[in-house]
Prior knowledge:
Blueprint: H1 8-28, E1 41-46, H2 50-56, H3 59-66, E2 71-76, H4 78-84, E3 92-95, H5 115-125, E4 129-132, H6 137-145, E5 150-153, E6 165-166, H7 175-185, H8 201-214, E7 222-226, H9 238-251, E8 256-260, H10 264-271, E9 277-279, H11 286-292, E10 296-302, H12 305-312, E11 317-321, H13 327-330, E12 337-341, H14 360-363, H15 367-378
Amino acid sequence: MKYIFRKKINIFFVSIFDAAGYFFKSLAGKKKNLRKPDFKTVLVVRLDHLGDVLSATSLPKILKENFAGCRVLFLTSSLGAELLSNNPFVDRVLVYDAPWFFRRRHKKNRAGLSFFSLVSELKKSGVDLALGLRGDLRENILFFLAGIDNRWSYGVTGGGFLLTKELIYRKLAHESERLKELLRELGIKMEELTPQIYLSDEETGAFKSRMPELGLSALEKYVGVQIDAGTPAKEWPFEHEKLFLNEFVKRFPSRKIVLIGSNKDRATVLWDGKREIVNLAGKITIRELCILMRYLDFFVGFDSGPSHIAAALGVPTLFLYSGTNRFEQWKPVMENSLVLRHPVPCSPCHLEVCNVKGHPCMAQIKPEEAIRALEQFLGDGVR
């Protein structure tokens, strides 16, 4: 088996763990697989980042349509849970902020169940099929401890022997193709997978009433600009962002910018009191961000949740791609997406902070390139 760890020490320890596990599993003998599965309660697991959860929101509807009368549970983080609110095809959302994904969040601020209370909850829920979309050793252990009869996932970080069906992991496959392959294993053939976000009239009305307070008007033309990402390695240098905003104000006088992000200090400096810029950094929820997308003509962002949400909701989106992740796996597939990227030999690094002087994968994406891309689409700039 080929593991996807970067550190050889992890491969060494997991190899030993798996060798012992597969040996004892072989002594126990194989269980017969169900030829015609009739799953009553399906658990979908995506505990990592917002963009990852977004890609999986297409599954609940498909599962409901193909397994008559089944219940769909979705296990995700507190951030991911916001994308699943009001989803009529999800019977229950279980929240667990896994410490291995949210190390920077203080323990007392983590939401949802603890690991062992989660095990207990899954036992009581009567899950008969668990779908681990990431292929994480800790998730495989969770399924085993919860006594779930059908445990489907990948063994690429170890624990494949704990699964009843170890799926083939194609390293270079796009995430959407991986989901299609999983569905084919369930006997479901899908040509396209579209993320699903369900917004209620009440939510939309509440946001509309907040717009004046936020400095927004339904009569204005806005372009959303993401100023920070989940990790610094995915972000533009500050000077690039500042230059881009200044040039945008000059080139597109008929439009306003809406700053999106969580770094309030960075946003305040970039905003600098300009009336052409509306600063919403740290002021709106993920649900409100989804509603805001209805008022945007264009979105400029990084390879992270907000950009993928914009594209999924039909907003033409310019992605500024770092070398953090494997581009082939996470590149946007929506027709309304444009990409600017500077390939580097150290990609994919999967680092939170770039360890190469000058952060070349992002620094080499020049602000003028982004402005030119906007000019081609918006067509109303002043040259």
